[in-house]
Amino acid sequence: MGEYSMNVEPNKVMSLKEAIKKYVSDGSHISIGGFTCNRNPMAAVYEIIRQKIKNLHMYVHSNGTGVDELIGAGCVSKIEIAYGGNGKFAATCIRFKKAVQEGTIEIEDYSNYQMTLRFLAGAMGVPFLPTRSSLGTDIINKWGFSADMRKNDPKIPNEKLVVTDNPFKNWMDTEKVVLVPAINTDVTILHVQKADRQGTGRIEGLTFADVEQAKSAKHLILTCEELVDQNELRAAPHQNQIPFINVDAVVHVPHGAYPTACHNYYDYDPIYLNEYGKAARNDELFNTYLKKYVYGVDGQEELIALVGEDRMKTIKADPNVGYAVNLKRN
Amino acid sequence: MEYTLREMMTIVAAREIKDGDIVFCGTGISMLAAMAAKNINAPNSVIFFETGSIDAKLDEIPLAVADPRVMYWASSNSGLLDAFATMQNRITGQHVIGILGAAQIDKYGNINSTVIGEYYLPKTRFSGSGGACDVASFVPRSITFMQHEKRKFVNKVDYLTSPGHLTGNGGREKAGLLPGGPQLVVTNMAVMRFDEETKEMYLAGYYPGVTKEEILENMEFDVDISRAEEVEPPTAHELKILREKCDPQRLIL
Questions:
Q1: Which tens digit of pLDDT belongs to each residue from B82-99?
Q2: Could you list the residue range(s) of the whole structural domain that residue B15 is in?
Q3: What is the CATH number of the domain that holds B18?
Q4: Which residue among A36, A57, A298, B162 is least crowded, i.e. fewest CB within 10 A of its CB?
């Protein structure tokens, strides 16, 4: 059980470069927090791209922005996913669509609840959890990964999903259930609003499946908008979702979710996301995008400087609602 | 009063929502239909998102189900785990009406939002299920938005992402799902419902200016057209609320 070591060091603060280098490597099984255009750990995503890490195996409910950029930059070879879209910004994520159609990534489909339950099973330490979702559908019938590949890879289970009779007979009027297999990622990366040096973390706004993802991970990197004193978080523990016992690295990255939203701090940036969408449609434009906004900057601070102060003002969150009221979004 | 097809589709779906319904919203037109219902005909319906917000007031239109705007003035807010449990729950789940969209649909209302062509190296890849398969599996009623085209109303979907009535009457129960399933399909030409006995799709209504023949020409399979009536277009009141209150910035309309 060496890989499942727990880290209780009082100070886990390190640079983003160091955290990615230490915990993410070629072939890692990873998940990222957030959902479509909200609170993806984008600074970490960009750092993974800059470090040219390849062959990632990703577990995704509906992460959207971050996943599409990682696929577009060639970091991902396998993906287990529920939704490859980005709300109004992309009915289907563009680099994801292209990669699946061209066969440059291997993909297997699940539903959002199934992916969430799979993270929860991993967090609970049980091999599977049951649901009624997807009975009678191709999500059960069609596997993306072959039986052979499964057998040869100790990091994934031999079956995709298993339909079984209710072992409690007809209890709760249920004849059959679908069993979904647990996920334990090598590393999960979340961006949270506040963390202390030891790794206690606080998410504001929507939490998605971040907590289940965090606790299913062998290693957890927290990037945070604000690095705060331990006392600030300990004074209101009911507002903290991430206990330090699950955390391996804490990285202070203001604007670490940009261009996705970070509740109470900034909104998603419709201009950036729409320009990304245009660039993603064309290989040459996409490479130009990567050169300018990812390889061309050395971290999130430089990205924000490149986008400019004025744009950041437009997406600054209104403290009453958590987002930018009347932001121009079309 | 002049209206667009998008406005017609939104209002037709909104009229299907009743007081006491918990409305599962996706992105785009489905969110707008839920907002229209809440503001026009079903003030006591509950707007609900898979990201966990329950009974949000929605001061501004969210552009994704993860948009921070889905939280505005909500009753409570949780995560995916709790949101899907609310739909699988035997009490609350039975009050949920799902609103979905798809690339293909068959005569039993089974839908495909995953691939066109083979699953391996598909001709066209779409987003995939997201929460759609979960909703379609759990809840007793759903509305599906479709574009009325022959390649979309097909004999067999290329990939069955979310269950409708599966193989017809008793199909859901045989697979292990609770009864229920899709009850309305709203397109740019017509509205379809499902026969109580056979669970097969039939033409329930056609929009003004559209003929039944035109509708059939845009489908790969035949449906019963004998029960079809002309759909009442949106009223001035419905349009006023939809335009001025629900989507003043024209983000979806």
A1: 999 999 999 999 999 999
A2: 5-246
A3: 3.40.1080.10
A4: A298
Nearest to A300 by CA among A87, A11, A22, A50: A50
CATH no. for residue A68? 3.40.1080.10
Residue A2 in this model has a pLDDT that exceeds 60: no
Q: Is residue B252 part of a domain?
A: no
Reported as a pLDDT band with limits 50, 70 and 90, residue A3 is low
- A213 in reach of chain B (CB within 8 A): no
d(C-alpha A160, C-alpha A192), whole Å: 32
Interface ipTM > 0.95: yes
Q: Indicate yes or no: CB of B80 within 8 angstroms of CB of A261.
A: no
- For the cut 90, the answer to whether the pLDDT of residue A281 exceeds it is yes
In a domain, B253, yes or no: no
pLDDT at A254 over 70: yes
Give me the number of domains chain B comprises: 1
For residue A242, what are the domain limits?
24-127+185-225+237-315
User: How many domains does the structure of chain A reveal?
Assistant: 1
**B246 three-state secondary structure:** helix
Whether the CB of A89 is below 8 Å from some CB of chain B: the reply is yes
Proportion of chain A above pLDDT 70, given as a percent: 99
C-alpha–C-alpha distance, residues B117 and A212, integer Å? 34
* B251 domain residue, yes or no: no
Whether residue B50 lies in the annotated active site? yes
The pTM (predicted TM-score) of the whole model is 0.97
Q: Do A326 and B51 touch (CB under 8 A)?
A: no
Q: A154 — contact with chain B (CB < 8 Å)? A: no
Q: Do B66 and A206 touch (CB under 8 A)?
A: yes
With respect to residue A159, please indicate whether it lies within any of the assigned structural domains: no
